[in-house]
């Protein structure tokens, strides 16, 4: 069984945001699979997707705080600067964190659910100051 | 063909550990596929999975040594500090390295094997001082 | 439908290189799928694969410039130094960026195409000074 959908996320401010609920809601509307995988592809190059803690929001704050210091926007050797000081760091984060996830799925009572660890959630990393809405390509395969 | 299993890894000390043999042993017990993919999902947010060299253990030492200096545990702007100095760096490494792998599989003489490069092995990154046992969700698909 | 091929890339100099065309050409020669995923596995531990901008080559320059400063080759605590100053950093980049991608595919007019975002391209990160040719294991699944 193969199924593909697009999910559009509303604009978020710069930082990390928990989007598990939005992905699970889209997944729940797809044909149920007893065993399967959901592939999630962010269709952008200045934002990221990663799995990390779904509880304390301070973890998301600290991740962003660390990354901003790791890649400041005004490094003297940066050449790709026309789109602003937040752009080249955003490209670096897109590659360091990645823009895709593949997630275990199993239907319970006929409804698809992510089969992740207790503390795992899906984070959107918005790395632009004004990134706008972001699109995800969702592909479910399974049986 | 779809098959799912859980693999529990015994507790390791902080650092990187080669776990190819344990994953291949679990894979060998699954129904054989001539072409397939094994998805490996670590069900935790303070450890990581990555592919890297399977030979010289110094590579694993150096990776850990580099990362410990990249993200010290006592950064003054960290807010998520209640679980100890090793916790927030562990979350950062989980996102920088990732917690999932998808691996080419092909059966030889009826037994599933990973089809990786000669020097590639699967590393578990244990980023907590006392991380305990770690669980992997294994999903094999193929034909 | 499952299909596997090997793609060999010619030697590139150290840095990031856009290889979308080579991957899409190999994909176009595979049996068409209306919905599917292409898994791309780099079979090496001192190079990387990542999705990032396919337009301005300065983004590739800046990524490489940043990474070279992040992990110099002569860190005093590095033990894995016999293969040269470029080797241990290459292993670090292979894990930070990753060596695998899973990419949405859909056939248009009977020919498989990647279904990525407008600005997304596949980058090969060549992290050795003289890395030689690099091999990719391509696995297409779909219906």
Question: Can you describe what's shown?
Answer:
Chains A, B, C: It holds the Pfam family YjbQ. Chains A, B, C: InterPro entries: UPF0047_YjbQ-like, YjbQ-like_sf. Chains A, B, C: Belongs to the UPF0047 family. Chains A, B, C: This is YjbQ family protein. The structure is a homotrimer of 143-residue chains. With 143 residues, chain A is of the alpha+beta class. Chain A has a single domain (2-142), classed as Jelly Rolls, CATH 2.60.120.460. In chain A, 24% of the residues lie in helices and 38% in strands. Chain A has 3 helices and 8 strands; from the N terminus they run E-E-H-E-E-H-H-E-E-E-E. In chain A, a hairpin with a 2-residue loop joins strand 5 and strand 6 (111-114). The first copy, chain A, is elongated, with a radius of gyration of 16 Å. The termini of chain A are close together. The model of chain A has no long low-confidence stretch (mean pLDDT 98). The A-C interface holds A 2-4, 39, 41-45, 70-71, 75, 77-80, 88, 91-92, 94-96, 98-100, 102, 135, 137, 139, 141 and C 34-37, 50-53, 56, 58-59, 61-63, 65-66, 70, 96-98, 101-104, 106, 115-120, 123, 141-143.
**What is the subunit organization of this protein?**
homotrimer
What is the percentage of strand-forming residues of chain A? 35-45%
Number of strands of chain A: 8
Low-pLDDT stretches of chain A are none
End-to-end separation of chain A in angstroms reads: 6 Å
What is the string of helix and strand elements of chain A? Answer: EEHEEHHEEEE
Give the overall pLDDT of chain A as a whole number. Answer: 98
Can you count the helices of chain A? 3
Number of domains of chain A: 1
Structural class assignment of chain A: alpha+beta
The largest chain-to-chain contact, stated as pair and per-chain residue counts, equals: A-B, 35 and 30 residues
